[in-house]
Structure formats: C-alpha cells, structure tokens
C-alpha cells in the first residue's frame, strides 16, 4: 500500500522466534494453565495475583517472567473482565488487546506476540483481539509520509493462532490490516492532505496495479454540474480554489461467479472533506473535527481494499465516493435555492449544513438507474450524517431500510454479524412521518432538503434524511408493490468511528467485510 505501516503483521503458532515480549489477553489466568505453550508461566501469574488483585479484573499488568522461561522476561497480561454478564460482548477483547499493545509499545517492545485465550463464549475473540492490536499500531498517513524513523512503534506484531486456522487467519488478518489502514488514511487525514482531488489520487494509486478493482475519477466541473447537480452545488464555493474542486470516485469489483445467486452491492459513501456548514456556518467549536465528515467514503475505500486482497466469489460491488468540500464563500449555494436533481425533481435548499444528503443523492440516483442491469441489487448510503443519530445511539451506526430491504431482512443478519465481530449496529425503522417531513411547503419544489433547525433539535432528526434519499432518488418507484422492487439501506454512521482527533476505529467497515466478504472466500 501507499506509505506502508512500519509494523509488519505476522501469524505464528509457536513462541520460538525473535520475540521480545508477550501480550496475553484473557478473562482468566486459569486458561494460561490449560495452554500447552504457556502452562510454565502459570505459577508466575499466580504469584503475581497474590499481591496484585487487579489482575483478576479489567486491567493491564506488566509482569517480569523468570529468565529461563522467557529470555527477555517481559509479559503483559491484559484482563478483559467478565464475559458472562448479560450485556458483555466481544469488544472487551478488542479493548484489552488495544491496552496491552499500547503498554508494550510504551515499554519499548519491538517484536511482540499477541496471544488471546478465550472459551467458546465469543467465537471471533481472537480476530477481534487482533483488530484491537491493529488499532494500537496504526501510524497516521501524514506521519508516515514524513519519512522519519518512528520511535514508539512495533517492528512486528505476531498473532498466535492454532495450526488448523493458520493459513486462512493470516490472509484475513492482513486484509483487515490494509483495509482498516486505508479507511483511516482517508477518514482521519486533515482536509488539505485529503482534499477531494487528493482522495481521488490516493484511491487511483492504491489500486493502480490491481487486476480486480476498476477506478474512474470524474473531475470535470462541466460533467459534474450536468450529471450530479446537487453534488456540484455543495462544492460550488470551493470551486474557486483549484485544489478544492470536487471528485466523484467510481469503483467496481466483479468476483468470480460459480453460482446463480450472485449479489450486487451498490454503495455511496459521503465524502465531505471539511464541513464548514457553508452559508449556514457552523459557529464556535462546532466545525472542529468536521474533516471526518468523509468517513462514509473512507469505509467504501477500505471495503474495496479488502475486496482486492480477499477476492470473494459471487459478489459484484459498485460504488461511488462523491468527494466535496462544503466551504463558505461568495459563490456558495444558499438556503432558498431550488435545484433540479439528477432524478428530475426540484429540491428546495433549507440549510446548507445539510449538505451530506444532497451530495449523495445524484450518485445514488445513478446507481438506481444502473441497478436494472444487475442481479439482486442492494443499494446503500453510508454517511456521518446527523448529530441526532449520535444523541440517539452514541457510537453505534443506525440502519434504515426501505420496504424491499426490510422484507429481505439483510439488516437483521448484519446486526448479528456485527455482534459476532465486535461492531454492533442498530436497526431504525422509517415511519410515514419521515416521508411527510420532506414534502415541500410551496409549489416550486418537489421536495425540501430538510428544515431550518439542527438535527439535534428536530423530531426524528436522523430518520427524515433516510426518507429523503428514497424520495429524491426515485426509489419510491421501486417499492414492494412495484414491478421491480429494489432494496435500499441508509446507514447514518453518526460518530461511530470514535472521537476526533484520536485514531478512529473503522465502523461499520468490519461488519461489512465480515458479512459480505468472509463467507465468500
């Protein structure tokens, strides 16, 4: 990948190697006693526990082993805490691994072996633990590009795996490593390093040698104005600065098909590289962190990185990343404007800070137009769309289905997948009021973009945008009652990737990979 991470990711089934530290993640030291390669260190843990009761509760413990057991002596035991409470979940392993690896790095370890010990309560505990470790070793793209030697980083992360899972686990772990890094590179980078055009260049370079991913960047302002007029409107103020002009990134993956039940996934990821609010300017500190308003697009980029590596069968994926910058300036789009969308409908602009839904609408309309040519299509929009969703669900992404998607039940299955892989989602139900909310208050428009209030003080403030995307794209003509129903799910990610500016946790990327890719490799 571009400017690769300084830490190599390896899988091991032995403790014989150039390791200078061991990190054990578990809920009980008794599992150490039962492990063939670790049973010799059990007495040391018992002795430590007599003086340090915290080892038996969620904690991270640095322990010196006898020299004859492990020459560098350094052991970190990270306790996940209880796993049998009603609301315990596998994310405890991720947190414990993150803490353990961070302690390993701060103590100067360079080549660490990560061992996760668990019972059968959580079937993906080892992988989720490894994903937590990947979180700790990520070095931001802008830091990697400085070409300086990184001091506080691991040289290698070695994840212990039983022999029967060795080859497959190594392949999957490396795919996750690159996929999550791509997502973070795009999503976490500042608005100058990742301008719309720079995101396009990053994606183009990333897949330049790929035989399975097709990339097309549309940067011509005349084409964008003609074919994606709402996306063009959002970026209108920024067009005066050449480096800030928009870029529509189109991606496609077509897996080998050996079955009839091929699935077509069509994604639109919101890509606002900085959201000032536009003419409806964000004031005070409200703009801080809005460089992550491109995280929906970042998830799409990371998903394609995983597709490129794992090459799943019987799936066709088409995506658009509408990359824009919602600047403020003399040429900015304003409230009260009426703009005709790609679908032919006239949209009254109510608030320029509700730019996400309209920047995605025309690319979504295009994918709907294309869907007639493909088998079993399911359209998605992924967006850090509303503060209302954050208030409602915190760091959980919300899924909202149209009628055909609700009938099919994919979201229910994805929620189950998310629980298994440590990235839970919630299902939200669109209601008639959400569609009524978007109806115009005048004869000049077919729809209104929203209202004049912030989503956080609007009733059902994150559901109405999902309804708007259905109404504005033409999906109302593809309901269960129609000749050709089309599945659509809107995912409001809110701030599910975590707080700015700390390293993000790509969400719901892990769930998408686990649901759509892993079963097909």
Automatic annotation (TrEMBL):
Transmembrane helix keyword on record: no
Domain Cytosol aminopeptidase: 351-358
GO biological process: proteolysis
GO cellular component: cytoplasm
Presence of the UniProt keyword Transmembrane helix in the record: no
Pfam families linked to this entry: Peptidase_M17 (PF00883)
Keywords: Aminopeptidase, Hydrolase, Protease
Highest taxon listed in the record's lineage: Eukaryota
Gene3D superfamilies assigned to the protein according to its UniProt record, in alphabetical order: Zn peptidases
Family matches, as PROSITE patterns: CYTOSOL_AP
Similarity field: Belongs to the peptidase M17 family.
Protein name stated in the entry: CYTOSOL_AP domain-containing protein
Lineage: Eukaryota, Metazoa, Ecdysozoa, Nematoda, Chromadorea
């Amino acid at each position: 990948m571009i400017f690769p991470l300084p830490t190599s990711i390896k899988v091991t089934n032995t403790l014989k190697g150039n390791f200078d530290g061991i990190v054990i993640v578990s809920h009980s030291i008794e599992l150490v006693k039962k492990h063939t390669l670790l049973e010799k260190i059990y007495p040391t843990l018992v002795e430590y526990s007599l003086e340090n009761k915290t080892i038996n509760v969620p904690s991270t413990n640095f322990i010196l082993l006898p020299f004859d057991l492990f020459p560098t002596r350094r052991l970190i035991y990270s306790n996940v805490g209880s796993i049998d409470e009603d609301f315990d979940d596998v994310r405890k392993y991720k947190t414990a691994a993150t803490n353990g690896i961070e302690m390993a790095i701060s103590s100067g370890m360079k080549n660490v072996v990560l061992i996760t010990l668990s019972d059968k309560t959580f079937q993906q505990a080892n992988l989720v633990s490894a994903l937590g470790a990947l979180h700790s070793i990520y070095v931001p793209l802008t830091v990697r590009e400085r070409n300086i030697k990184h001091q506080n980083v691991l040289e290698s992360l070695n994840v212990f795996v039983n022999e029967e899972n060795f080859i497959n686990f190594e392949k999957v772990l490396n795919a996750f490593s690159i996929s999550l890094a791509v997502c973070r590179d795009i999503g976490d980078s500042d608005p100058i390093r990742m301008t719309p055009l720079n995101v396009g260049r990053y994606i183009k370079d990333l897949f330049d040698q790929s035989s399975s991913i097709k990339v097309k960047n549309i940067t011509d302002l005349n084409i964008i104005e003609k074919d994606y007029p709402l996306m063009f409107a959002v970026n209108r103020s920024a067009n005066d600065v050449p480096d800030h002009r928009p870029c529509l990134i189109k991606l496609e993956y077509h897996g080998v098909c050996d079955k009839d039940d091929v699935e077509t996934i069509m994604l639109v990821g919101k890509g606002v590289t900085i959201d000032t609010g536009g003419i409806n300017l964000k004031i005070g500190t409200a703009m801080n962190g809005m460089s992550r308003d491109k995280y929906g697009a970042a998830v799409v980029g990371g998903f394609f990185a995983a597709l490129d590596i794992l090459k799943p069968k019987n799936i066709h994926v088409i995506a658009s990343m509408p990359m824009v910058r919602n600047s403020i300036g003399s040429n900015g789009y304003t409230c009260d404007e009426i703009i005709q969308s790609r679908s032919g409908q006239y949209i009254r602009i109510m608030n320029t800070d509700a730019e996400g839904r309209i920047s995605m609408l025309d690319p979504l309309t295009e994918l709907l137009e294309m869907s007639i040519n493909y088998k079993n299509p399911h359209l998605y929009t992924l967006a850090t769309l509303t503060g209302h969703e954050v208030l409602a669900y915190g760091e959980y992404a919300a899924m909202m289905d149209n009628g055909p998607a609700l009938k099919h039940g994919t979201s229910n299955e994805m929620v189950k997948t998310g629980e298994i892989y440590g990235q839970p989602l919630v299902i939200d139900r669109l209601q008639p009021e959400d569609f009524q909310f978007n109806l115009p208050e005048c004869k000049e428009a077919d729809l209104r973009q929203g209202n004049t209030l912030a989503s956080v003080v609007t009733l059902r403030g994150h559901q109405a945008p999902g309804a708007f995307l259905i109404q504005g794209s033409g999906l109302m003509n593809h309901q269960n009652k129609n000749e050709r129903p089309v599945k659509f799910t809107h995912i409001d990610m809110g701030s599910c990737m975590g707080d700015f500016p700390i390293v993000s946790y790509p969400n719901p990327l892990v769930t998408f990979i686990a649901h759509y890719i892993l079963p097909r490799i």
